[in-house]
Specification:
single chain, disordered N terminus
Length: 308
């Protein structure tokens, strides 16, 4: 098991990473068009994959009539947090009339960068366009992705019922256990936000089972921690403790000290919620011991947040 990864939030990052091997806000690969300058575009993509954003931009500018080049340039600009410039690059790509997956990608990437600029409603419009194009081309995976991206944007707007509807639509299109795991987690997060705790637990439990079956150790661990939080919110202390204890044992067996620390923090929170301050202190001290050994910023932050 690795040392730290970000705890899942109602974001589609996990599923996009699983499906595309990229982060949420740089989701899709790019295809060459007949009129592109392949050498420049390929050089841009190579530089982009290496995190050489300035070089990627330089190469993209050698192929200014290629939609692929503008998409690559936009992704590089987004990597440099030049969000307004990235927006312009994606818009320029669309003006060059890309086709197929490339056009779908342009709308999705534009939606992503708009979300980063706190323009969730504008992002939804882009995702809806990408979804329609995906349906026309019968690309079911992209239809699913856009359902979830739409759901995320609604979630950011605190429109949890609309987010749930979008997540549920995406879940129906999941094609494998990895996609089901992430879809279930998204549905669960929306139910949790709507304070429908029984449903949140139901779907997060499904996510845990799918991650145990098909996910990475980190994905399983994070899903289990979230399930423990849902049980705790439901005041099902037995369910919470069993879930986190199972994760603690799993982490110990697999050399996951980071998750041992997070499990100890979770168990401390559970015991404190039950009024067992003595055991809460024991678990908190165990978490402190692990944190002092690892000196991991994420674990330290979680410990500080949980400090009584």
């Amino acid at each position: 098991m690795r040392t730290p990864i970000a705890t899942p939030t109602p974001t589609y990052l996990g599923l996009i990473a699983c499906l595309m091997g990229m982060s949420l806000l740089s989701i899709v690969g790019m295809q060459q068009t007949a009129f592109a300058a392949p050498t420049a575009v390929e050089a841009c993509q190579t530089a982009l994959s290496r995190g050489q954003y300035a070089e990627a931009i330089k190469q993209a500018e050698l192929a200014s009539q290629s939609p692929s080049a503008w998409l690559c340039k936009g992704r590089a600009q987004a990597g440099l947090a030049q969000l307004a410039a990235a927006t312009q690059s994606y818009e320029r790509a669309l003006k060059l009339n890309p086709v197929g997956v490339e056009r779908i990608s342009a709308h999705m990437l534009l939606g992503n960068v708009l979300r980063e600029q706190q323009q969730a409603e504008a992002a939804i419009s882009q995702y809806q366009t990408a979804q329609q194009l995906s349906q026309q081309d019968n690309i079911k995976r992209y239809v699913m992705i856009n359902h979830h991206l739409i759901g995320e944007a609604w979630f950011e707007l605190s429109q949890y019922a609309k987010a749930l509807e979008a997540f549920q639509a995406g879940e129906k299109l999941a094609m494998n256990d990895n996609e089901r795991a992430d879809s279930y987690a998204h549905v669960a997060s929306a139910y949790f936000a709507l304070t429908q705790l029984d449903k949140a637990v139901e779907f997060q439990l499904k996510a845990v089972l799918m991650q145990k079956k098909a996910g990475t150790p980190d994905q399983y661990a994070n899903a289990s921690l979230t399930l423990g939080e849902y049980f705790l919110a439901q005041k099902d202390y037995i369910g919470a403790e069993k879930t986190v204890t199972r994760l603690l044992e799993y982490a110990q067996e697999n050399g996951g000290a980071f998750y041992e620390g997070l499990s100890a923090i979770a168990l401390s929170n559970i015991k404190r919620a039950q009024g067992d301050l003595s055991q809460a202190t024991v678990w908190f001290q165990q978490a402190e011991k692990i944190a002092n050994t690892l000196n991991d910023p994420e674990l330290n932050a979680a410990l500080s947040k949980a400090k009584p």
